[in-house]
Design goal:
By secondary structure, the chain is α/β, with parallel strands linked by helices. It contains 14 helices and 13 strands. Strand 1, helix 2 and strand 2 form a beta-alpha-beta unit. Mean pLDDT is about 90; it is low at about 1-30.
Length: about 425
C-alpha cells in the first residue's frame, strides 16, 4: 500500500494535532457534521472519524442490469479484507449498499438516503450512466465526493461543473478509439453495423467511434438502438443483419449483450466480426449463449481476467481469490465483475491514503492528483493518473479475443492519451 498519510503521523502525537501541519476534527456527540481543525480547518468530516469511514454505493441489485450487482460483492470483500488488517489508516470501512434497479429516479432517492440518513463520507460507486447523471447535481450541491463512478461516460472527465464527481474505468470514447484503431489496422475497409443502448452510455461510445474512424475506409453502414426497458434486441439484430456489414459493434449492457450474441449465433447467414464492449464482456455474459458460439469475439480490457490461467501465479490475483472465498463465499472469483469491484475498491484505498486532509475536500482533491498509481489487478503497464486538465484515471486498454473458454489478450496496450490526444472539454 502507499505510504501513510499525514494524519497517521499526526495521530501518533496528540499535541501535533493543533499545529499548522496537523489535520484534526472537532466532532459532535455522534461523530458527525463537524468541521476539521488545524491546516484542514473548515473542511467537512461527516462520515469519517479517527476509527471509521462510512461509504455508500448504489448498484442495480435488481432490474435489467442486475448482472452488475455483483460488483458490490467484490467491493465489500475488499473492504472486509482491509478491515481485518487494521483498516485504512487505522479506520474501519463501513460500506452501505443500496439498490436502484437501474432506475434514475430510484438512484436519486437512494443517494439522498445515503447522504441525509446514512450520513456517508462519500458515495463511492454509482453504477450506470443514467443513474450517475441523475444524482451528480445533487451530490455536487451537497459537496459529497462521488469518486470512481462505475460508468465510462466521458462527461465525468470533461465536465468542469461537477468537481466532486470523477470516473475510474477507461471512458467510452477511449474504448471506442481502441476498436477504431484495431479496425483501421486490420480491416481498413470494414463496414460496421452498430447496436447501441439509447442513452448517454451508448451514444458516447458510438459517437467516439464515428469520430475515430472519420476520414478512413472504415464506415458505419447501419445503426440500431434499444431501450433498457425493451424485452429483447432480436428485431434490431434482424435489421442490422440486412446491412451485410462485416463488423458488428455491440454497445450493450450484459442482458442485451447476451441477447445480441445469441442472435448473432442463430443467424448463420451473417457472420460479422463481433466486437462487444467491455461492460458486457464478462464470461458470465457469454456462457448463456454457449461458449462455442462466441469464439473469435473481440473486446478490450484494462484489468486481469480472473478466469485466465496466466494469472494463477500472480500475487494480487491470489489475494483477491482467497479473500473473495473468505468474505463473499457466494460470489464467483472468476466473474470479471467481482474482480472489477475489488480493483476499484483498491483504487479508492490508494486515493484515501493520498488525502492531505481526512475530509470530504481531501478526498475530492486526492482523486484528481494521482500519479502512476499501481493497483494489483490492473494489467501490466496500466496505472492510474490524474492531474490538472486530466480527470480520466485510466485511459489504457488492451484488445482481447475469446478463444476456447476464456479471453486471450493480443497486441499491445494502447495508451489512448498518447495515441489520440486528450479528450476535448
Amino acid at each position: 500500500m502507499r505510504k501513510t498519510t499525514a494524519l497517521r503521523a499526526a495521530a501518533a502525537a496528540t499535541a501535533a494535532l493543533l499545529t499548522a501541519t496537523a489535520c484534526s476534527s472537532q466532532r459532535g456527540a455522534d461523530g458527525q457534521d463537524a468541521a476539521a481543525d488545524g491546516a484542514c480547518r473548515g473542511q467537512q468530516t461527516t462520515g469519517i472519524t479517527d476509527k471509521t469511514i462510512k461509504l455508500g454505493g448504489i448498484y442495480p441489485l435488481s432490474g435489467p442490469a442486475s448482472a452488475y450487482g455483483t460488483i458490490s460483492k467484490g467491493v465489500a470483500a475488499y473492504f472486509k479484507y482491509v478491515n481485518d488488517k487494521g483498516g485504512i489508516d487505522g479506520r474501519k470501512v463501513q460500506f452501505v449498499v443500496r439498490d436502484d434497479g437501474y432506475q434514475p429516479p430510484k438512484a436519486v432517492e437512494e443517494a439522498r438516503r445515503l447522504v441525509e440518513q446514512e450520513r456517508v463520507f462519500a458515495v463511492f460507486q454509482t453504477l450506470g450512466t443514467p443513474s450517475t447523471a441523475a444524482v451528480w447535481d445533487y451530490l455536487n450541491q451537497q459537496k459529497v465526493p462521488q469518486p470512481f463512478v462505475a460508468t465510462g461516460a466521458s462527461a465525468w472527465g470533461t465536465d468542469d461543473k461537477h468537481p466532486w464527481t470523477i470516473g475510474w474505468q477507461p471512458n467510452y470514447v477511449a474504448e471506442a478509439r481502441v476498436y477504431a484503431k484495431f479496425l483501421k489496422d486490420e480491416k481498413p475497409k470494414a463496414k460496421v453495423a452498430v447496436l447501441y443502448q439509447n442513452d448517454d452510455f451508448g451514444k458516447d461510445l458510438l459517437g467516439g467511434f464515428k469520430k475515430a474512424v472519420a476520414g478512413s475506409g472504415v464506415k458505419v453502414v447501419a445503426e440500431e438502438s434499444y431501450e433498457v426497458t425493451d424485452p429483447s434486441v432480436s428485431a434490431q439484430m434482424t435489421t442490422l443483419a440486412r446491412s451485410k456489414a462485416d463488423v458488428l459493434l455491440d454497445v450493450t449492457t450484459p442482458k442485451f449483450g447476451s441477447q445480441a450474441l445469441a442472435a448473432d449465433a442463430r443467424n448463420t447467414k451473417w457472420n460479422p466480426l463481433h466486437i462487444v464492449n467491455n461492460v458486457a464482456s464478462s464470461v458470465a455474459v457469454l456462457q448463456p449463449v454457449g461458449l462455442k458460439h462466441v469464439q473469435g469475439v473481440v473486446s478490450a480490457t484494462y484489468f486481469k481476467d480472473p478466469a485466465d490461467p496466466q494469472w494463477d501465479g500472480d500475487a494480487a490475483m491470489k489475494t483477491y481469490k482467497d479473500a473473495l472465498h473468505k468474505y463473499a463465499p457466494d460470489a464467483d472469483p472468476a466473474n470479471q465483475f467481482n474482480a472489477y469491484g475489488w480493483a476499484v475498491a483498491d483504487s479508492l484505498h490508494k486515493a484515501l491514503d493520498a488525502m492531505k486532509c481526512p475530509t470530504r475536500e481531501g478526498l475530492r482533491d486526492a482523486v484528481r492528483n494521482l500519479k502512476n498509481v499501481k493497483v494489483g489487478l490492473l494489467l501490466p503497464g496500466v496505472t492510474i493518473s490524474t492531474g490538472h486538465g486530466d480527470a480520466f484515471p485510466l485511459e489504457t486498454m488492451q484488445l482481447m479475443r475469446f478463444k476456447g473458454a476464456r479471453w486471450q489478450l493480443f497486441g499491445q496496450p494502447v495508451d489512448t492519451r498518447k495515441e489520440f490526444g486528450p479528450l476535448a472539454k
